[in-house]
Amino acid sequence: MLTLFHHPLYASCRFVRLAFGEYGEELALIEEHPWAKRREFLALNPAGTIPVLLAEGDHAIVGATVIAEYVDETRGAFQRNRRLMAEDSLARAEIRRLVDWYLVKTEGDVTRHLVRERALKSQMGGEGGGAPNSAAIRAARANVRQHLKYTNWLAATRDWLAGPRLSYADAAAAAALSVLDYLGEIDWAQYPAARDWYSRMKSRPSFRTLLADRVRGLPPASHYADLDF
């Protein structure tokens, strides 16, 4: 079994877990706090970032999109009907664009700030902790609406977010939005197409381990594990 160094509220880590889950493969999970800068972890990834996958032969593969390419080459290419990356080059470009949108732009605009201020600061202590920054929370909450509007448009105009088939784009979006859903930061009633798409994602077997996630001192929103929300 492969091992993933992760944190349950990092969208990039959830993305990797969903990708492996879609191929029916379980991962051994080690929760890593990157702000702690553990010497053993830095030996695997001197940048100190997560996710990090210990692949065959204990080779460390670093970063969500790098891991996704590895998964596609070693799993997806042999399961074409279930492959999370398209065969066509333009379709692949659209999938990669949306993966970047949710794991980089949504992360930078919204997720990183809400997770840090609402969940991580209380755990970080002298390694960057402290009182939540209310201004950062307000700015992130203002940005949530634009990202949900865009997701709602994608879900309303396509079968799946990047086109006719489930892809890495859906995994990336579900990873990011599931973090916000855990925190209770989404009013799904305002975005019916996005809600219906997210309900389909939550119902997939690959999502089960995410719905079981719990963070010490911060329980999920009451509807988080509810498939009919």
TrEMBL record:
Pfam families: GST_C, GST_N_2. Residues 1-79 form the GST N-terminal domain. InterPro entries: Glutathione-S-Trfase_C-like (IPR010987), Glutathione-S-Trfase_C_sf (IPR036282), Glutathione_S-Trfase (IPR040079), Glutathione_S-Trfase_N (IPR004045), GST_C (IPR004046), Thioredoxin-like_sf (IPR036249). SUPFAM superfamilies: GST C-terminal domain-like, Thioredoxin-like. It comes from the Bacteria. Residues 88-221 form the GST C-terminal domain. Homodimer. This is Glutathione S-transferase family protein. It comes from Chelativorans intermedius.
